[in-house]
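Convert to structure. Protein one:
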Amino acid sequence: MTQSIRIRLGISTCPNDTFAFHALLNRKVDWRGLDFEVELLDIQQLNQRLFNDAWDVAKASFHAALLLTERTMVLPTGSALGFGVGPLLLASKANDRPTDLEQLTLCPGEHTTANLLFKLFYPNTTRIEHTVFSEIMPQLQQNRADFGVCIHEGRFTWQRQSLHLVEDLGTRWEQETDAPLPLGGILVSRTLKPEIIARANAVISDSLAYAHQNPSEARLSMRKYAQEFDDEVLMEHVKLYVNEWTTDLGQLGRDALSALSERARAIRLIPEDAPGIEVWNGSCSR
């Protein structure tokens, strides 16, 4: 009997991931000779552990991917990007804007794309602190911070919390780049053999297809991990973040990653001569 190959897989608890990976998590699809050891964590925890080589395959913010190009590539399947999907900059008070270094902005993690966008569009305007995404809106409600960059289900529920919209950071990205906003993708270690990477990508693709065919079943996994338990909100989240570019990045998705790499160089997040994010295409070019 052929011995299965262990794959350390990390995914986030957000609904688009638990939807897409429901079938893999519950072995509803063929694992193709791979033995997935799966952990579900907050996106910033995933980012941090990627820097410590904790995963073979993992969901990560594209901000983190920019800093890990020597060690990882992006799989063509499983990404979250699109139009109208960006994080929201919210305020605890009406008509307030980030203009003072005495003000405090909460971001959902140092290496999240949400934090990168805030730095791109509001450089050196406020103090920044990082906290788990689910704590940002409650802290704004309690006036413990002036602003917060909101992601995941909070995009659909902030008005219920009596918070105030400063700007949709994704809309601004779209206006300035004419590209969909790349939020996060599935990174794969360059140490894996191409044949193993191909199998991992195929399993993820099969899992995504299963979820599309069985959305009510996939909703069980979504509810298990979601901060928001309203089915309507969960499915709105999936409709927004699980789209054609989740199935395959395609050329437009690759162009969006190139735009993100260019912006990162412009603010010196990465060196001017640093390689951009590479999408796996069946081989390793480096």
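Protein two, convert as well:
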Amino acid sequence: MYAQCPECLTVFSFDAETVAQAHGTVACGKCGATFDCLPTLTEQLPEETYETLPVHPSSPAPPVLMMSVVRAGPEDAVQAPLFAHAPPAAEDEDDAPAGMPSFARLQRLPQRTTHRVGRWVAVCGALALVLAAQLVWAERRPLTANPNTRPWMQTLCGWLGCTLPPVADLSKLELISRDVRPHPSVPGALIISATVRNDASFTQPYPVVAITLSDLDGNRIAMRRFRPSDYLDDPAAQSAGLAAGASASLVFEVKDPGKKAVAFEFSFQ
């Protein structure tokens, strides 16, 4: 999940547990502002370049949830006989002991059919599979990133014909060098280059790179996020990811924001 700080416009990545801790109220780790993350909460970042995330429209009435998980109710309780010590039911009412009132005679209870039991077992099994699939889909990111559950997820994907995304750990991406200079052939443009190394023991996907240009006082002048498709021309290299221990040179072409931009910052998302 993603949400944007309304003060400094920084976009953060987090999970549902973080949202639930204070009912959507979070604190910005960049500028320290406290804000409600629910208006801009989104599962995917926009594909195109953006400055702010779209705000969800508010509604005076709560939304109605239509997708439900139905749980089978208990079977109707079988009523106990009126007399605890009544004699066994006769095969025929004419065989009942003489003088016994009709209301005291035990009636033969209907027996459950095998068809009905099998139907409920099939329904419960189908609901359990649907619930399990929903749980796996909701927790697919931590499950694929966990080394204990990833082999199981790979086996499941082999059955379903899908491919697991590479495991991402942004803390293992090390920025080795960076540089900014005027574009040699495009007036009013800059070329920003950087070298990043994957210190993880596994292949990682290329990250979203955020570049921020600021003035002498640290005020942000310009900021842009680059997806892997923006700075990698080879789709095969992008799909393969950054191998463990490997380094990659990244080059970005941006518009020159002016002489006030004297500092720049890289971050991975």
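Strands lie at 2-4, 11-13, 25-27, 34-36, 173-182, 189-198, 209-214, 220-226, 247-255, 263-268. The radius of gyration is 32 Å.
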